[in-house]
């Protein structure tokens, strides 16, 4: 295709503002999907995505419209995937900024808009859901116009649901989004903006060609790893894969299949070039995925350990950001320490493990990555509280921080500031988007956000606040490791790295919880919370003599046997911490209640 006739665009929106619905409507209006086979939310393929209404994996669809080729690139919609969003934006020249006409701008709308502006995209402001009785198109057109600096009358109004205004929007894309520009004679350079594992075909890599041409049966080179592969198939998606034997030229968007079985061999952000005539420089902006949040994952039934390993291996084929290594816990047995991009990524992985692989799992409290500098100048990276040095030789501890943006009605400013202050936030600034809505910006430690920050924010603002955050380096902090000890023995699964000011509260809370959950033993069991050798909280489990058979008043032998067997069964699920028997359920309960 002549690049002059190509328009590459994406839709950016806050969750639930109707991106998938609009995308579906465009597929239908351009005739790519006929009305009969129109399945609700065609673009969101995974069940979890559909249920949660989020799009995890971006995809690209080619839409013919008015003698032009529109490539619609679907960006993931959540903060954890900012890097993937930024890569898919880089594959476009334009972005539809979609805002719910009954809700107005939300934190994610802003975050994505800033990313799109950084990528120099042409922005098309659009209000969606104008069919809703609660829609306030005039009010929000003004808000949107104020934000991007256009006239309120330039804001398009559509309904993805009914289709109103969608044709005009497609025309507008053709008229205003710049055509791609590239050097057709240069060595090939294509940006990988997504990479998906398919059980039958292996990895399907989505690319946007910037310069040159990629053909079928060509040896290609992945520039970040220097690996070479052969393109077995190359084509476009419309809406199913259609091989294009002529290959892909400047500005085109499509997929390629090389037979590799692992998405880590085809990384998002990498540059594909031709092995025979390779480009000198890769496209800018490649980053290796960097897990920000870690948690221990253990099978509740220790026999399921091999299945858990297998399931993680399989998930990793499709998720280059997922990393894990075996770990053993005295309390929980054999499991894995798993690294995630963020909280949502963690929830998704866990849910897939349970749902798609039928595993029952227990996870330890999530923690971020700390950098510890010792007095002798040596340094270590801590992804697990058990690796936190317990000696007194620590010079400094650094924690990751975020730049967080919160959007809410102005009446909640006080509540929001209180929450953020309580979590060591530093106010960066505050702006009114309109009379009654504010944008509040904070620097917040990531470690404070991953503990029910979002839930608290929602409940204190009656659901009206929205949050978005991006990594913003690290800061030094007064952090300590709190251990929980049973009869003097540390229970590794409960160790946590917390701020000094919160150590006492954490210790008291955990000790109380465990006292309630651990059954009495035949001797007294002290539960202590300690920082190093210093005990900061203590509870006691009183002793009992438990004689199960005493209840049976002699008589019935078979009943006695049953009881004994039952007790043995129970013992199997008991973990020994020193001399103390703790039922697995106690650990599970202590870790799962917030
Ligand atoms: P996404 O999270 O941005 O992909 O949003 P979805 O497309 O999944 O839509 C979220 C919800 O809004 C769904 O319940 C849709 O049915 C509804 N919705 C989307 N577009 C419209 C619209 O134009 N009008 C109305 N009334 N509802 C819509
Ligand atoms: Mg969606």
Automatic annotation (TrEMBL):
Location(s), subcellular: Cell membrane
Family annotation (InterPro entries): EF-4, EFG_III/V, EFG_V-like, G_TR_CS, LepA_C_sf, LepA_CTD, LepA_IV, P-loop_NTPase
Gene3D superfamilies assigned to the protein according to its UniProt record, in alphabetical order: 3.30.70.240, Elongation factor 4, C-terminal domain (3.30.70.2570), Elongation Factor G (Translational Gtpase), domain 3 (3.30.70.870), P-loop containing nucleotide triphosphate hydrolases (3.40.50.300), Translation factors (2.40.30.10)
SMART domains cross-referenced by the UniProt entry: EFG_C
Keyword NAD: no
Keywords: Cell membrane, GTP-binding, Hydrolase, Membrane, Nucleotide-binding, Protein biosynthesis
Residues bound to GTP: 16-21, 128-131
PROSITE patterns in the cross-refs: G_TR_1, G_TR_2
GO molecular function terms attached to this record: GTP binding; GTPase activity; ribosome binding; translation elongation factor activity
Pfam families membership: EFG_C, GTP_EFTU, LepA_C
Catalytic activity reported: GTP + H2O = GDP + phosphate + H(+)
GO cellular component: plasma membrane
Membrane topology classification: Peripheral membrane protein
Cited function: Required for accurate and efficient protein synthesis under certain stress conditions. May act as a fidelity factor of the translation reaction, by catalyzing a one-codon backward translocation of tRNAs on improperly translocated ribosomes. Back-translocation proceeds from a post-translocation (POST) complex to a pre-translocation (PRE) complex, thus giving elongation factor G a second chance to translocate the tRNAs correctly. Binds to ribosomes in a GTP-dependent manner.
Protein name per Swiss-Prot or TrEMBL: Elongation factor 4
Gene that encodes the chain: lepA
